[in-house]
Amino acid sequence: MESKRLQLLEEEDKQKKKIARMGFNASSLLQKNKLGFLNATSYCRLAHELRVSCMQRKKVQIQSSDPSALASDRFNLILADTNSDRLFTVNDVKVGGSKYGIISLRGLKTPSLKVHMHENLYFTNRKVNSVCWASLNHLDSHILLCLMGIAETPGCATLLPASLFVSSHPGERPGMLCSFRIPGAWSCAWSLNIQANNCFSTGLSRRVLVTNVVTGHRQSFGTSSDVLAQQFALMIKLWDLRTTKCIRQYEGHVNEYAYLPLHVHEEEGIVVAVGQDCYTRIWSFHDACLLRTIPSPHPTSKSDIPSVAFSSRLGGFRGAPGLLMAVQQDLYCFSYN
């Protein structure tokens, strides 16, 4: 297993030009487009796939007011905001528990890839089950965390203002942290529907709980099964809810029992997931073709599964598409060539 990982890493470093699909390199793609064999949509999709297959790994330099913490605290989770100019991080600390931080991605430009970590004293001794950005005061003004219960302390959903780390709006005052007691919650999602303004949902066993953070009003919706249904069969499935049939299978994913995030990027037409084997796999969303398998830069370990974030605009509006990978204490950028 380790020898295979090292071999793949060596091949990644040596082979600059890769082919996502047989018969589709850069020259053949241009030729088929000129001859009219590809329409504009197919050409753009295949061009994106080719760029994904040619992304090169580069280490990102993280700057912080506490460099010693960067050398010891391990990344557990990263999540980019809507504009992809901030990255919320959950780091495991040596003394136990986790601490939170926000990385500004505005310095993520070649050739010097530098980012700045904004930290806060907020930490938790509980496992973070799920995280999402929340638009309460303005776009991505807060972070919503779903925390597992521990001992006699029940699980909860915590709304953390991003201004506690760094203010993105002039004159903005640091907001207040608020917490909602929700035992048994394992997932959370912020509502983007104006009819459910200021609301978030949490996934529970056989039901969904919708909470209004302003009024505290709650609604419970029963389901015939758990909201999250994972089939641990080395694949990811796309379902048509109208016909309740599987219409596509993304094969190769390795997950025996863990709750691992899945990233779907319709703009780029790709699906990204990290398996328990620590390999990051990228598929074509349209036909489930496996485009690329990226080995972890560090030895494979169940406690060091990489966390990734893909964006069409890394670093903000003028940024380029690419993939960020956090593993152990390091952050890597795979940018379009």
From TrEMBL:
Keywords: Repeat, WD repeat. The keyword Repeat applies. InterPro entries: CUL4-DDB1_E3_ligase_receptor (IPR052254), WD40/YVTN_repeat-like_dom_sf (IPR015943), WD40_repeat_dom_sf (IPR036322). Pfam families: Beta-prop_DCAF4. Transmembrane segments: none annotated. This is DDB1- and CUL4-associated factor 4 isoform X1. Gene3D superfamilies: YVTN repeat-like/Quinoprotein amine dehydrogenase. One of its GO terms (cellular component) is Cul4-RING E3 ubiquitin ligase complex. It comes from Panthera pardus (Leopard).
